[in-house]
Amino acid sequence: MQVTVQLARGALDDAMRASMELLAAAQRGGGKPAEAAAWLRIAEVHRHREMAAGGGGTSSTPEETLQAAERSAELYRGLTGPEADASQKGLGAALTESGRACLRLGRHRQAVSSATEAMAIFRPLDLLHRLTRALDLELEARRGLMEPMIGLQAANRELQLLRERQEAAGSEVSRGALQAEAEILEAIARTHGSLSEPLGAVRNGLLAADLRKEINDDEGETSALLLAADQQRNLGEMIDATETAERALALARKTGNARHEEEAAKVLSRVLSERGLNEQAPQRPQALQALETLVAAVKQRDGAAAKEAEQRLNSFGGLVTNKDIADHIVPLISRDPEAVKFLREELGWDVEKPYTQKQNGKEVRHLDFYLAHRMSGMGFGPQFKVCNFPVRVWGSAPVAVCVNQLPETEAWQMEMMFRPGFIDAGLQSGLVHAPFFD
Known about the structure:
TPR-like_helical_dom_sf; 71% helix; mainly alpha; 438 residues; Serine Threonine Protein Phosphatase 5, Tetratricopeptide repeat
């Protein structure tokens, strides 16, 4: 208990002292199960000190975590009789801890072995949350071994086994079982995403979100929705991705989870920017603020601040357009030509000094530009090509039928009365009226 309290406080050195005291007490007469449990707590504290390296306290290495976890597993395996049966949960936890340490050390095959053994222990004990954690470990190790398909098969097998146990029970499915099913579905979705299979990722992510909603797990539902929204974007389903990301953002604000809210705003902003709807993106004001910070740093010739602002600006992706940058940078270098040198040397920007004489130009409407070049042979289209020659229906009134399924395009094209894809398809299907079909 004292170790848990110290870990919660972030007092990692105190937690290590408390766990060593547990070990000493167990070795004096607490028995092998108590000693194995003490070594497991030591491994846990080592892991926390790994994660907090550089925070001012004593740091640990993955090797130290692995040694403590393996010692714990060794002691648990040495137990016999009733003690062995009672200590299976501890053995599974020690195997999971050692597997995670192996993963950090790059020993992926050993991590897979530990995860597989841990799952075999947790499965009959019906320790579903621990089972899904061990499954996550195997999936991550399989990706490191370039064997993601084997990991995907293992995850689907666990999902099938879980559903079979639920059907065999016959009674109402417990909250823990639904949560475990959602966790496995999310693991499957992440694996599909790593395999560049967004369709499978979206399907499993949305199933997980539905299960999370059923058990009123708002934070879990938010995570699943964000996973699905990102993969919907990869599929090109931009409207669905927008709706899913908006649901995730609303849930994040409801739960007050700042990390989820920031992530949801980022996903939604990215989708909207790719749809040409930058002004509606929730992170648009932050992106413009980052651009203004960059301009201020350039004015002050502060290289460190400029690089930091540029890095933050890049994190917003397409939320800041080239026009936005030009609107802020061109006036600056027009008034301060020496800023060009600073941008080149500090940020590596390829910026030319502005012309001193006035430049005359004329903006051409997108519609005029498209129609002019489409008819004059620039080859801007077609976006849609028919697969078969048009068929002439004999009679005095020829009929042309065309079915168009076009992807969402830039905002200026969406606002046109006739989108380019429809024009292209119409031109081609209209060949049915051509005289050489008579």
